[in-house]
Amino acid sequence: MDDDAPVIYGLEFQARALTPQVAETDAIRFLVGTQSLKFENQIHQIDFDDENNILNKNVFLHQPGEVWHVSASPADKAVLTTVYNKTSEQKAEMCGAVWRIPSEFDASANDAQDDASASAQALELLCHLDDGNHSNMVSTVWEPAGDGKKLISLTENNILMWDLDVSSSQAKLSSSATLEGKGNPKFTAGRWNPHHNCTQMATANDTTIRGWDVRTMQQVYCIDNAHGQLVRELDFNPNKQYYLVSCGDDCNVKFWDVRNSTEPVLTLSEHSHWVWSVRYNHFHDQLVLTSSSDSRVILHNMVSISSEPFGHLIDEDDDSEEDEENKKEKPREPEKDGVIGTYEEHEDSVYAAEWSTADPWLFASLSYDGRLVINRVPKAVKYKILL
Amino acid sequence: MAAAPESPPPPGEEDGRRRKRHGMLKLYYGLQVNAESGNKGPAATTDPCDINGAHFKPEVYLQRLMQEKSLNELMDKERDMVRQIRSLDSDMQTLVYENYNKFISATDTIRKMKNDFKKMEDEMDRLATNMESITEFSARISGTLQDRRQQITKLSGVHMLLKKLQFLFELPARLKKCIEMQAYGQAVRYYTKARTVLDQYQHMPSFHGIREDCSVIVAELCVKLREQFKNKESDAHQLAECVDLLLQLKEPADELCDEFLLHARHKVDEDLEMLRLQLQMLEAGQVPSPGDPGDGDKPHPMDVLEFTDTGCNVFLSDMCLVIASYKDLFINRPGTGVQEQAHLEKVANQKLEVFVNSLMGQYFSYVEQRVQLEKESSDNTLLVRALDRFHRRLQAVEKLLPETESTSSATHIVAKMAHDRVIHYSEALRRHFADCLTDVRQSLAASRSLSKQEGSNLGDLLQTTATSILDQLKTVLSDLRAFIESDITFAMQPYFREPFCVQDVREGLVVGFLKHMFTTCSEFCEGSGDKSSAPPPLILLLSRLCLDYDMTTISYLISLTDEQFLVEDKSAVTPLSELCNLAKDTAQKLLDHYVKVQGLTISQMLRKSVETRDWLNTIEPRNVRAVMKRVVEDVTAIDSQVGLLYEEGLRKAHSSDSSKRTFPYSSSRQNQRSQWSSYAPSSNMDTSLMSNIQKLFSERIEIFSAVDFSKVSVLTGIIKISLKTFLECVRLRTFARFGLQQIQVDCHYLQMYLWRFVSDENLVHTLLDEIVGSAIHRCLDPVTMEPSVIEVICDRG
């Protein structure tokens, strides 16, 4: 079987929420949350068997409402948070909660597969992220590489930092910040910066990107008019501490150096509609994944502003004689930025695309019609980066 | 002797005799017998019976005769032979006699000669003796005269010497007198004559005295001459005389050169000073006023033509005069020694060169400064005329002194000026373009504030702008034409003409301006999204302008330029196609930007309307929401705006029912939709399947994609962007039943009005269906409204 062929998985419901299971480093595993107003919503745990090219799924019920956002704990595989829509006749409310995947599942993972959909287990509620004072929740982020005890939730105009206790059964609001400004600004996205000891995070509201110090909950920097229109998503470069990428409704993806934020370092405009998500590869930060409501997922190669602008340094001894000769004949040219691939398997807007945390060459994308597609970085690119 | 006179031989028989005689003679001389006989043929030579032949054998002959002839014949023959013998004998006798006679006369002659010679010998002897005596006499005479002659020679020598001495003694007085009479030339002539003698005999006291006196006088003379030399009033001829005299007086030539040049410099410096004053005045801001030249002594500021004119007339003519007289004085001097002359010439030339170069340099710098002041002048022809005069007049200097590179530096100045003018003009063009843009902006703003229908004059505005820009360009080109008019001297110089035409005018001005224009236009697209300040109609107008440039104006402009400026070598110039492509790209970029901006404006309205409403708690729809009406209004306005500048464009074939607005088509859709909604509660799988199948058959819609240059395409682009935004916003909300129904109403309303603007009405239908479909999905209680009710509401709205 062709290794580069995409693997497609169809969900029965529409879906927006996708996350890799961050604490899982061996198996390629993604969590998908569904959106349905009429039926019981589900969290699908998708296992991808790389060798056999087979997808295994486990379905857990998420009873309180449709899932708008999901994120997995960096420490405990079984723990995740969701942002969900609690609807009644009169109002719809966005709430957040911490959940645990039922523990007995792990043992019987493969056996339970067949009847999983029929008698799906419900997720185990650990605690609500709610102190009753704050409005609709937008997303949650765990402290990157943390011990799974700290997480931040964004409501429409607040940043709330929560401390979880050991069993994660209680969440205590430790600090918060409020976004102020005219016209009632609302957060659209937030990411926690993995550098600087995890003391910073960045948020987006309307066309502005703001940086926050999570210790003091003070704004530290602000990029006004980062995009022509709404900023949809952000991500931090995992290897370069001041680099940040953003995307938005102006169809552009912009790379920023937060030390000098008057102009973006680079702007990509490959998409023909709003860009909903952007993700750096966790290891090779030249690989940047974007997804858009033009139903496309694009994998970019941003070598020039990555941490390895000249490619991987080669150990001469490892190469055979032949290779060395080849190398002498044509010295390695510096690689150029560009699009590695455009993935058009989706038929509807792609609201989320994520890299696997277990396999750096693999990524999943989720379109609104419930189609999850798993793709790999083309081998040629992979070898070029590795060799 | 053998050739004795001969009577003409009787024909026939005489022939034989003569031959025989000859034969004998030949025998005697041993000559050519064989050759002769060879000519006669073999028969004549070898025949032994030939009586005349050399091989004649009498026995053979006789025998044959005896055998062949009869007796009678023999008798005849004998008789004949006897006769022949007889005649031969007489011939012989005659010959011998003749010869003898001749011998006799010769002997007589010789004897006579002997006598004569003896007489002559005597005469000669006598002559010799006479000569001897003559010689003797003359020797005696010269001997006696010798003494006298020597005395005479001596006396005449003494006389000469005395004369010279007298001259010498009189010299100081004469010199004085000459100087008094101001006959300097005479004085110098006298002095030069005497100088060598005086120098030679200066050890003798008397000569020494004279020499001293002379020296004093001559020194005085020198002083006088130099005075005259230095006198400003003295004219060139006088000067020349002075220099000539001074040179004869062995004054050092290079000093004289220097002095001469110094003197000349005063005069020329005055001219330069005047030019400098002019410059100062101009720099001080005085305006040239050619109208009142007669304003007393006070110098008035001159315009550039007058300036160069004065420069040429005063400075250059003085310069030429100086060079010419200098050359006459120092370089082309007749007479003096070759070596000395060569040396003098070299030194003098060097000095002259330095002198001329420094002054010309000064002059050039003034002219350049002056001309630079005209860089932004409006009167181009005046400037060109001035430059031409400047350049033309320099030819004279160049002719006089080819060593100086005045022409090349002059051409350099001219070329620089031309270049500066081109830059000035391109700046003016750019300014004009910017002004045009401002004008357009202003009139757009004015029309907007005055009346709502802003577009009505958009076409006119485009026309005015295009014409204004083109006219300006043409004016500039015709102005610059002045630089290469045929009567301008420097225009024909290839090293001026080619860079000027190709580099400056075509590339720098025309191509540069076009590129600037496109860049400026493109910059309007750079502004991020809705923050860009350029009003959309301006962008639309510029887009059309660029498109027009692509299609006609550029090729017209370039061919006009090439024609007017005779650009022939097309290898080094920007090709037409590149410019056209640039124009087209710019037009495309602008139009895309226009679509984006307008699409975003409408998107923004739709988004706000969806985001700010509480869809869970709306009342049953009674009306189309006002924002939808506003959207349709705006789209209509955009449509009319674009229609003013762009053609209609191609539409996909209308479905036959489109004329009847929406009913039949949308009713079928409605049916489908109601089927949908009946599916919806039963199974979510089916709906997603439905929409997926539907999508399989519809093409992927590119939202922000490039549009064609047509109204329909532009409008399609705008509507696509707006509806996609609507869709995405709906998906982010949760609806109650009435919320869904409101969306249904809104979509139907949009469908009723938007199809007419787009190239493919199915596109609108697909997008609107998707919106309603998404709303159904996002609805807690998906009960759709009756199509008929929707229609009633929409018709009422």
TrEMBL record, chain A:
One of its GO terms (biological process) is protein ubiquitination. Residues 325-338 have a biased composition (Basic and acidic residues). Keywords: Repeat, WD repeat. Gene3D superfamilies: YVTN repeat-like/Quinoprotein amine dehydrogenase (2.130.10.10). WD repeats lie at residues 224-266. It comes from the Eukaryota. The keyword Nucleotide-binding does not apply. Residues 310-341 are annotated as: Disordered. The keyword Transit peptide does not apply. SMART domains: WD40. Belongs to the WD repeat EIPR1 family. This is TSSC1 protein.
UniProtKB/TrEMBL annotation, chain B:
Its main location: Golgi. Signal peptide: none annotated. One of its GO terms (biological process) is protein transport. InterPro entries: DBL_dom_sf (IPR035899), EXOC2/Sec5_N_dom (IPR039481), Vps51 (IPR014812). Residues 656-682 are annotated as: Disordered. It is found in: Golgi apparatus, trans-Golgi network. It holds the Pfam family Sec5. Keywords: Golgi apparatus, Lipid transport, Protein transport, Transport. GO terms for cellular component: cytosol; EARP complex; GARP complex; membrane. Residues 51-254 form the Exocyst complex component EXOC2/Sec5 N-terminal domain. Residues 666-678 have a biased composition (Low complexity). Component of the Golgi-associated retrograde protein (GARP) complex. Belongs to the VPS51 family. Acts as component of the GARP complex that is involved in retrograde transport from early and late endosomes to the trans-Golgi network (TGN). This is Vacuolar protein sorting-associated protein 51 homolog. The lineage of its organism: Eukaryota, Metazoa, Chordata, Cephalochordata, Leptocardii.
